[in-house]
Protein backbone atom coordinates (compact mmCIF):
# COMPACT_ATOMS: atom_id res chain seq x y z
CA UNK A 1 0.00 0.00 0.00
CA UNK A 2 1.45 3.36 -0.89
CA UNK A 3 0.53 6.85 -1.92
CA UNK A 4 -0.19 8.15 -5.43
CA UNK A 5 2.98 8.59 -7.44
CA UNK A 6 3.55 8.89 -11.17
CA UNK A 7 6.74 8.84 -13.18
CA UNK A 8 7.83 8.99 -16.78
CA UNK A 9 11.16 8.12 -18.33
CA UNK A 10 11.80 8.60 -22.03
CA UNK A 11 14.98 8.04 -24.04
CA UNK A 12 14.94 10.80 -26.66
CA UNK A 13 17.94 9.36 -28.47
CA UNK A 14 20.75 7.01 -27.45
CA UNK A 15 22.31 8.52 -24.33
CA UNK A 16 19.76 11.34 -23.92
CA UNK A 17 17.03 10.76 -21.34
CA UNK A 18 14.13 12.81 -19.95
CA UNK A 19 12.57 11.80 -16.66
CA UNK A 20 9.79 13.31 -14.56
CA UNK A 21 8.02 12.28 -11.37
CA UNK A 22 5.07 13.49 -9.32
CA UNK A 23 4.25 12.37 -5.79
CA UNK A 24 0.79 13.47 -4.72
CA UNK A 25 0.25 16.09 -3.53
CA UNK A 26 3.48 18.08 -3.08
CA UNK A 27 6.47 16.89 -5.09
CA UNK A 28 7.48 17.38 -8.73
CA UNK A 29 10.89 16.53 -10.22
CA UNK A 30 12.06 16.75 -13.84
CA UNK A 31 15.47 16.01 -15.30
CA UNK A 32 17.15 15.80 -18.68
CA UNK A 33 20.48 13.99 -18.91
CA UNK A 34 22.96 13.20 -21.65
CA UNK A 35 25.87 10.76 -21.65
CA UNK A 36 28.74 12.78 -23.10
CA UNK A 37 31.72 10.44 -22.56
CA UNK A 38 32.29 7.03 -21.01
CA UNK A 39 31.20 7.33 -17.38
CA UNK A 40 30.31 11.05 -17.72
CA UNK A 41 26.76 12.42 -17.76
CA UNK A 42 25.55 16.03 -17.91
CA UNK A 43 22.18 16.83 -16.41
CA UNK A 44 19.79 19.70 -15.75
CA UNK A 45 16.95 19.35 -13.27
CA UNK A 46 14.03 21.16 -11.65
CA UNK A 47 12.47 20.21 -8.31
CA UNK A 48 9.48 21.48 -6.36
CA UNK A 49 8.84 19.77 -3.03
CA UNK A 50 7.19 20.17 0.33
CA UNK A 51 8.04 17.74 3.13
CA UNK A 52 6.69 17.36 6.66
CA UNK A 53 8.77 16.21 9.64
CA UNK A 54 8.10 15.43 13.29
CA UNK A 55 10.09 17.79 15.49
CA UNK A 56 10.58 18.03 19.25
CA UNK A 57 9.24 21.17 20.85
CA UNK A 58 6.21 21.66 18.61
CA UNK A 59 2.79 21.75 20.22
CA UNK A 60 0.36 18.83 19.98
CA UNK A 61 0.36 17.13 16.60
CA UNK A 62 2.09 20.00 14.74
CA UNK A 63 4.88 19.19 12.30
CA UNK A 64 7.70 21.11 10.66
CA UNK A 65 7.17 21.73 6.92
CA UNK A 66 10.04 22.39 4.52
CA UNK A 67 9.12 23.86 1.14
CA UNK A 68 11.61 24.40 -1.69
CA UNK A 69 12.05 24.86 -5.41
CA UNK A 70 15.29 24.68 -7.31
CA UNK A 71 17.19 24.32 -10.56
CA UNK A 72 20.45 22.40 -10.76
CA UNK A 73 22.79 20.82 -13.23
CA UNK A 74 26.35 19.69 -13.76
CA UNK A 75 28.43 16.63 -14.69
CA UNK A 76 28.31 13.26 -12.94
CA UNK A 77 30.87 10.47 -13.16
CA UNK A 78 29.72 6.91 -12.50
CA UNK A 79 31.33 3.49 -12.44
CA UNK A 80 29.92 0.10 -11.50
CA UNK A 81 30.67 0.46 -7.78
CA UNK A 82 31.00 4.23 -7.23
CA UNK A 83 29.48 7.53 -8.29
CA UNK A 84 30.71 11.09 -7.85
CA UNK A 85 28.09 13.80 -8.21
CA UNK A 86 29.02 17.47 -8.36
CA UNK A 87 26.09 19.84 -8.77
CA UNK A 88 25.52 23.56 -8.82
CA UNK A 89 22.09 25.08 -8.52
CA UNK A 90 19.79 27.93 -7.63
CA UNK A 91 17.34 27.46 -4.77
CA UNK A 92 14.24 29.65 -4.57
CA UNK A 93 10.82 29.84 -2.86
CA UNK A 94 12.25 28.10 0.24
CA UNK A 95 10.53 28.31 3.62
CA UNK A 96 10.02 26.60 6.96
CA UNK A 97 6.54 26.45 8.49
CA UNK A 98 4.76 24.68 11.34
CA UNK A 99 1.27 23.26 11.63
CA UNK A 100 -0.75 20.08 11.37
CA UNK A 101 -1.26 20.15 7.59
CA UNK A 102 -1.21 22.52 4.63
CA UNK A 103 -4.51 24.21 5.51
CA UNK A 104 -3.20 26.36 8.36
CA UNK A 105 0.57 26.74 8.47
CA UNK A 106 2.52 29.35 10.42
CA UNK A 107 5.56 30.73 8.62
CA UNK A 108 8.68 30.61 10.82
CA UNK A 109 11.38 31.36 8.25
CA UNK A 110 11.71 32.38 4.61
CA UNK A 111 15.10 31.51 3.17
CA UNK A 112 16.63 33.79 0.57
CA UNK A 113 17.01 32.57 -2.98
CA UNK A 114 20.59 31.65 -3.69
CA UNK A 115 23.30 29.66 -5.40
CA UNK A 116 24.45 26.36 -3.89
CA UNK A 117 27.02 23.64 -4.52
CA UNK A 118 26.55 19.94 -3.83
CA UNK A 119 29.10 17.12 -3.81
CA UNK A 120 27.98 13.55 -3.25
CA UNK A 121 29.93 10.28 -3.16
CA UNK A 122 28.05 6.98 -3.47
CA UNK A 123 29.51 3.50 -3.15
CA UNK A 124 27.96 0.09 -3.79
CA UNK A 125 29.27 -3.13 -2.28
The percent range for strand residues is over 45%
By helix and strand content, what is the structural category?
A: mainly beta
The count of β-strands is 8
H-E string: EEEEEEEE
State the end-to-end distance.
30 Å
On the 0 to 100 scale, the average pLDDT is 86
Q: What overall geometry do the principal axes of the alpha carbons give?
A: elongated
Query: Uncertain segments of ≥5 residues (pLDDT<50)?
Result: none
Number of domains: 1
User: Total helix count?
Assistant: 0
Give the helix proportion (percent range): under 10%
C-alpha-based Rg, rounded: 18 Å
Verbal overview:
The chain contains no helices and 8 strands. With 125 residues, it is mostly beta strands. It has one domain (35-123). Strands 1, 2, 3, 4, 5, 6, 7 and 8 form an 8-stranded antiparallel sheet that branches. The model has no long low-confidence stretch (mean pLDDT 86).
Amino acid sequence: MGFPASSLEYEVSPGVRISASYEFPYSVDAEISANVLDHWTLFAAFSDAERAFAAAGLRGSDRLFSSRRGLRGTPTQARASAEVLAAAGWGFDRSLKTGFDDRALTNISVLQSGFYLRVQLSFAF
